[in-house]
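User: I've been trying to design a sequence by hand for this structure and keep getting stuck. Would you show me what you'd pick, starting by listing the structure so we're on the same page?

Assistant: Good idea, let's start from the same input. This is the structure you sent:
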């Protein structure tokens, strides 16, 4: 049974303190920052050790307090096959670390009176709809920014992979079957989060990218930061995405373009930029005496909105999601705001902010996720708060990311290998034809000189089909969410022609069936 908002607040120890009062609250006394500064000297060695163990080519790290940058350093290479080194101004893709930045941008608009966190999305995005008309009318920026929409975990991500742009994806959210009731459960959803960001920008009469520039990046002189992929690509001092090939990291053949979900994952920035942003988080929206974001609006982002983990978790206690932030409580005065980001195509990032202890750390890397930035952050927090590293964080995070990389359809069989003694297929003409699916659109199965191919997407891309057994073939997906080969299961139901095809790659939420016609 999900936590109610009231029980979540009581479990957190905040009682019924309102967001506005929380924004105004100050520590009873100014904590001594000596523990932070004491362990800065060992941060170089810590980062070097994690990079050596993981092989991650490049990283940049920043530590900040409300009034100054305490540590800023680059490590390793921007690309593994060249000599260009990472420095504090090297620009990295942030992946989902974009979310708390986006929450800061929308908080600025809320403080300006342009939008409200509780404004319905459809008010400024008329083409937006959920599968239930009542939810369409009621769902707000707040609901999407804390992932309580009812949409399934990562539902809609594959639309981007097969070529749909942001407008088409927002339109197709109506075809995604809800995984839970509205506002009852947490489920991480990039496309819903992005719809809310686009709605906030539309209310301001601007593009998302321009709003980010005008309300965050320029006021803070985050000179390298952008929410446009083209700006990132144009940076001379940028990190290239790396993927693992055997025991080596190599520059990926494909570099991630996340413009379709820019609020959820499309930002890029340097460690220097991110240090400035950390200072604003720690100072309640103020930077060098200038109010960048109204404190009450920013405080909403740091306030628990929905439970993400059980109260009886022995390692963390209750965990929550705010607006673009993971929030947890590791004990008295140990509130943490954090977020990770990762692209399988070559980015991994992490930030932790300790508001009572008045410091934050951000780590940016240029490899697909293996737990390196999370390990650096958690080790540093252990050292500052407890004087020693209490767990093998790299083993913990590394195993978690390994497991996440295995697709659900790859857990019961290895579809990369032909099945021994496979039953023969029917003639190719049995499978060829056009099939349709409301969410993913039409597909084509085409006879070619080499066999069969699968055509996917709004501008159809061709994928060879390899026979596996009987009426089952496989294809190799491409893009950010690609993993191993996916089964493509034709069903003939006694007829000459296959009447439908189930593609496991699209079926995580039970919507992978395409019907002939």
């Amino acid at each position: 049974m999900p936590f109610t908002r009231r029980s979540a607040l009581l479990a957190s120890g905040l009682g019924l303190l309102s967001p506005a009062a929380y924004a105004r609250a100050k520590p009873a006394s100014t904590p001594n920052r000596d523990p932070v500064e004491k362990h800065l000297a060992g941060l170089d060695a810590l980062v070097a050790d994690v990079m050596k163990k993981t092989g991650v080519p490049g990283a940049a790290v920043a530590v900040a307090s409300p009034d100054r940058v305490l540590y800023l350093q680059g490590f390793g290479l921007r690309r593994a096959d060249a000599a260009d080194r990472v420095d504090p101004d090297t620009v990295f893709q942030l992946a989902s670390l974009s979310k708390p930045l986006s929450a800061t941008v929308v908080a600025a608009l809320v403080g300006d009176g342009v939008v409200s966190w509780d404004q319905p999305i459809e008010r400024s995005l008329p083409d937006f709809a959920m599968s239930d008309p009542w939810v369409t009318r009621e769902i707000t920026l707040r609901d999407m920014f804390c992932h309580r929409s009812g949409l399934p975990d990562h539902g809609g991500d594959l639309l981007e992979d097969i070529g749909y742009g942001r407008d088409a994806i927002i339109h197709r959210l109506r075809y995604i079957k809800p995984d839970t009731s509205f506002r009852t459960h947490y489920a991480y959803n990039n496309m819903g989060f992005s719809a809310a960001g686009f709605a906030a920008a539309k209310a301001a009469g601007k593009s998302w990218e321009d709003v980010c520039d005008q309300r965050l990046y320029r006021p803070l002189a985050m000179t390298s930061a952008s929410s446009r992929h083209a700006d990132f690509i144009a940076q001379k001092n940028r990190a290239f995405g790396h993927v693992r090939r055997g025991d080596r990291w190599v520059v990926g053949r494909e570099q991630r373009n996340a413009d379709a979900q820019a609020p959820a994952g499309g930002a890029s920035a340097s460690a220097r930029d991110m240090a400035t942003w950390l200072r604003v988080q720690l100072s309640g929206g103020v930077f060098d005496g200038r109010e960048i974001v109204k404190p009450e609006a920013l405080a909403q982002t740091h306030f628990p909105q929905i439970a993400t983990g059980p109260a009886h978790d022995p390692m963390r206690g209750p965990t929550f999601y705010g607006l673009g932030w993971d929030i947890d409580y590791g004990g008295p005065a140990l509130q943490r705001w954090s977020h990770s980001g990762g692209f399988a195509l070559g980015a991994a990032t992490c930030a932790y902010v300790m508001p009572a202890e008045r410091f934050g750390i951000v780590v940016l890397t240029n490899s697909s996720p293996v737990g390196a930035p999370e390990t650096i952050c958690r080790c540093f927090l252990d050292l500052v708060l407890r004087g020693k590293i209490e767990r093998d964080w790299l083993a913990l995070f590394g195993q978690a990311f390994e497991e996440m990389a295995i697709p659900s359809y790859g857990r019961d069989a290895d579809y990369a290998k032909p099945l021994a003694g496979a039953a023969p297929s029917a003639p190719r003409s049995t499978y060829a034809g056009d099939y349709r699916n409301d969410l993913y659109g039409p597909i084509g199965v085409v006879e070619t000189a080499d066999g069969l191919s699968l055509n996917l997407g709004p501008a159809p891309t061709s994928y060879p089909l390899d026979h596996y057994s009987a009426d089952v073939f496989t294809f190799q997906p491409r893009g950010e969410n690609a993993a191993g080969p996916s089964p493509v299961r034709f069903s003939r139901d006694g007829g000459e022609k296959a009447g439908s095809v189930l593609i496991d790659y699209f079926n995580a939420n039970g919507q992978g069936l395409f019907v002939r016609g």
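That's my pick for every position. To get oriented when you compare it with your attempt: The longest strand covers residues 335-343. Residues 1-31 have pLDDT under 50 and may be disordered.
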